[in-house]
Amino acid sequence: MTDLFTTIVSSPVARKVGVPQPTRLRRYEPGLPLCEGPVLVAGGGRFAEGIAAWLASAGVATVATAADAANRVGAVVLDLSTATDPAELDQLRLLGAPAVKALARNGRVVVVGTDPSTLTDVAEVTTQRALEGAVRSLGKELRGGATANLVLAQGDAQGGVRSAVEFFLSGRSAYVDGQVVRVDESTSPDADALRPLEGKVAVVTGAARGIGAEIAKVLSRDGATVVAVDVPAAGDALAAVANEVKGTALQLDVTSDEAGRRIVEHATSRHGGLDIVVHNAGITRDKLFVNMDDDRWRSVMEVNLRSILRMNEAILGEGGLADGGRIVCVASIAGIAGNRGQTNYGASKAGVIGLVTALSRQVAERDITVNAVAPGFIETEMTARIPFATREIGRRMNSLQQGGRPKDVAETIAWFVQPGAAAVTGQVVRVCGQSLLGA
Amino acid sequence: MASQNTPRSTPPAPRPPRRVAVLGGNRIPFARSNGPYAKASNQDMLTATVDGLVARYGLAGERLGEVVAGAVLKHSRDFNLTRETVLGTRLHPTTPAYDIQQACGTGLEAAVLVANKIALGQVDAGIAGGVDSASDAPIAVSEGLRQTLLAANRARSAGARAKALAGLRPGHLVPSIPENVEPRTGLSMGEHMALTAAQWGITREAQDELAAASHRNLAAAYDRGFFDDLVTPYLGTSRDTNLRADSTVDKLSKLKPVFGKGDGATMTAGNSTPLTDGASAVLLASEEWAAEHRLTPLAWFVDAETAAVDYVHGDEGLLMAPAYAVPRLLARNGLSLQDFDFYEIHEAFAATVLTTLKAWEDPDFCRERLGLDAPLGSIDRTKLNVNGSSLAAGHPFAATGGRIVASLAKQLHEAGGGRGLISICAAGGQGVVAILEA
């Protein structure tokens, strides 16, 4: 997706004359180390010790203070989950600032707190809520591909916190910045670190191209058997994706009444079950609100929202998604911030967020998690067609000063669906490099 | 391993034949020649088709027993078309392949061959297919130029080579383009059919009705999603380009006849198949292989028969061979013509279907030509070509068999069981017919 402008502004000449150059982000590859450099774990909350022990067992060097690190610090994990008074927020600065100063390229700051909604004491709620403002601001200050994110624990269980911290430390979260993830007390089984989705059957809609194709590839790389779904008219591209991931292609229109039943039938009869569903299929039909016609409004609602509601009936019905299964929806930054000309699209994607919130509670007793990613500016064929000026603004106006890749969205989804992420549900994670839009 | 040296007293008993399952198929939309696939080669189209099948059934990296396919219009460089195709697909490169050619019967004959090997236990699974491009047709040099060039190639000295090349004449430069004619009669297939249609008194109205029904049925099948798991789009085309969903007898009746002579001519471009580009493939396997791969048999490939007629010296029509093949197949299987839930009679021309049906109803023909005591009788026309056939879909010669086998198998599966008859006529006075059952 390299256009002429990108070629010029990223050329050595441009670099010499001082055009700001986005950092090449550290992206996950199986087998690469979790972080580049030692991890400073501090803060003394109820998770710090467990995180340090887990990092050590995973072969990641840890340090207690920035001064202990011989060179640069790969990441900083600050556990303030037991802070109860605003005065304790000082720790964030005292422990964090020296480490952030020594942070390596593509470094990470992960703050662990307690979900304020689980607290009642005013001072405690105030303290924990304050963390979010600090983290989001820090995200905007960090340079060199570094990110800052917040994990909020809803209890004392270590598993969920560990899974979220691991995600934020790793290259899987390359384009995830300034985000807050809440984790509950669910426990999760062990999974193979390199192929966490081994033995799982995953359905990805809209898999013929763009983000959907990348989701299929990443889930397959992580061990899943992938059923690639797209409309019959996209069947040739779909076949190529299905063959590349050694999965199967299922041509269907997600808006048809039969879609959910056919997905379940295909997954169970061909692959022996259904563990993961990624509702990725989506369309845009932009028009200013006053000029929006029936067809544009309705087709966007049908494909992006109503089809998911309908398919979920079969997917969550008898013989459908297994207990402990995973559903991931693809929302959008437009569903959070809104976009000119996208009242239909914005409504559908905001609706998806509502769907995820409500459905996650409804299926919690079956240990099924429901989450959403909200992509920001992702380099795809679709964004390549945006007019030049708008595209450059969208691309640069975020803390990482660059567009994301389809793989970044896929990696976040691949984390949501891991067995280890059982404690992560009802969450919306933006994959936007901390875009200024909707922040 | 002492037993290796022990001579066996008797050869092993032959294994009993196995049931052969049709597991599914794939084709690219068929396109009228010189349309969207004008620049696609046979190998391009067959590769896309097999890859679509591989994707649908999760066969990437699988080694199959064999892939058998062919093309009627074929470049000499494509002598190993199917094997070259396999090497370009996601099938495992150790999957063997071979080419066959039996004119329009190619696709069905390929299925027969694969099915027979599966039945005998020689392979467990295979793909049968066919492809044809009337657009990317082979053009040969003239016979004069060819002989001259070969002579020059044989020459041992520069002088001799110059002498050979001096034999070139301007007329030699006119290329030789493939023609849709029977080599032994010089008549086109349409002209042959027109003779037969006139002989059997097939009316223009009946032909147009059959053509309109073909378009209607094919359009309806697309609309209800019947082809969602039978067709994979290709080069931006997702439906057969010959399909006219709004075709009516009235519209068809306005077309001028193109085959036959004078006022009695009945065959038009509307009730004859157009030259078409396309490819199809069918996945066949043993029950065990299907179960191991968690695939549901759509139908069983029960039996097949091929017949040929003497259209050169005898007085039989060029496309009448299926009329002979079917009764032999019925007799072998103890069935009557009425024992079927679906009939797939390839619509080379509307008149072909109508003549064949009329012949089976005709006591004289059945007695004298087929040697039967009583006519085979008529069929329930509502069971004929229920999802459209070649008049609407088009007819890339070798690809038609695969289209029909896959569609009929799915139709039988959807119906929850039943029996289907396939009948395909072919150039050279041949016909291939088969029975599927679910």
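Chain A has a mean pLDDT of 93.
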